[in-house]
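Hi F.,

I've been meaning to write this up properly since the lab meeting, where we talked about keeping a consistent format for the predictions we share between groups. The idea is simple: the sequence comes first, exactly as it goes in, then the structure tokens exactly as they come out, then a line or two of notes. No screenshots and no reformatting. I'm using this chain as the first example so we have something concrete to point to.
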Amino acid sequence: MSDDTPFDPPYRLDVTDRVGAVLAEFDHLADGEETDRTVTVAGRVMLLRDQGRLAFATLREGSTGDEIQLFALSKVLDGFDRFVKLNLGDWIGATGEVVRTKRGELSIKVTSFVPLAQARRGFGDKFHGITDTDLRYRQRYADLWANPEAAVALRARSRTISLIRRWLEDRDFVEVETPVLQHVASGAAATPFTTHHNALDVDLKLRIAPELFLKRLVIGGFERVYEIGRVFRNEGISTRHNPEFTMLELYQAYADYTDMMALVEDLVAHLATELHGTTTLTYDDRELDLSTPWRRASMVELIEDAIGVRLDVGQPIDEVRAVATEHGVEVEESWGTGKLILEIYEKTTEHGLWGPIFVTDYPEEVSPLSRAHRDQPGVTERFEAIVAGRELCNAFSELVDPDVQRARFEDQVRQKDAGDHEAMALDEDYLRAMEYGLPPTGGLGIGIDRLIMLLTGTTSIRDVVLFPTLKPEQ
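Output, unedited:
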């Protein structure tokens, strides 16, 4: 309120109807028609026009973004003078009869209203909202009102996660929660954040992946298990990276990476259909067909398509180094042929894949948790799904031999000692768990934020994360 009236909001309000329900129920009203239906709605005043003895306001509901016109007459509304002095952004509850004005606008003819909260700060220009992107992400609470389109992707995020849970539960997957604070952060190639636990006087890591704990649960008898949760990686920030993000990880006993491919393509196609009614979307002004089945091709096949050179993990390393150097890859002395092939792929090939495509058969050197390929030496039964030139997920037939896993971990330790800060740590407890027996298992990790970007046509991760990580405000 902009006058000197003391502001004393109620402790609660009986809201009888949602704005969207009112719009749907009375859509049939003819111009000038009234009803006997009285409703109470609540939201923010986003537009206000005072025309003397009558006033019009636009009320926007927060949870849905639905809007309805409030029609106020001085001879009907006790407190009309206070109504026309409302600030844009003020929360109010409004009670009145549902009518359609002579000009055809479905409205609530207000008989009473109650202020619920004052907006002491504005939401920007009503036509352009908040255009400063840093301000939008830093003050998301204002952005959601000033730029209604910002809420669309964030609401879609909530619905998508709900759809994923339902889809997995229909397939007998059990949702669990595993530790965020870990003594050994492993399960992915990433640098962890470190914190300190005072009572135990030990340093702990924020998890970079829930993988090894979920596989402990498979060993413990959870044959189909999944987790949707935050993971933390101490890395750069970009339109595709936020240091804390949401992962879906799942594990299925008696399955392999081909089962994971089928699961991924079926799940993503299902989500697209539920959200948009079709599997054909537009992303970054290009058509993207998510219908199944998706293409499958090995990493070396795709490199050959891109640069005309056939590579193999069994080649002399000097030959592979020469190819890497030729294509602008900065080579580290400690890298073997597998790491070189991956770097060549990421430099020359990945960004050109529109997809969707499953890139298969990753070298063993860069896949320490993946099972060796049953037919091709030196590579693993691992894939990444590339959609719109970006990695969507990582999956594999899980390594089940504790002796091979120990050797792989020890190789990772050597790589870390050689300067690779993202190499995995050796987890003795996980190795002990493996000695109890891990059955053949397929595993999968999907970045939820990138999945939401894909399904909403969003090109920046900050637009699908409610509160992205930013530099401290100056």
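Notes:
The chain is about 30% helix and 25% strand.
The mean pLDDT is 93.

If this format works for you, I'll send the rest the same way.

G.
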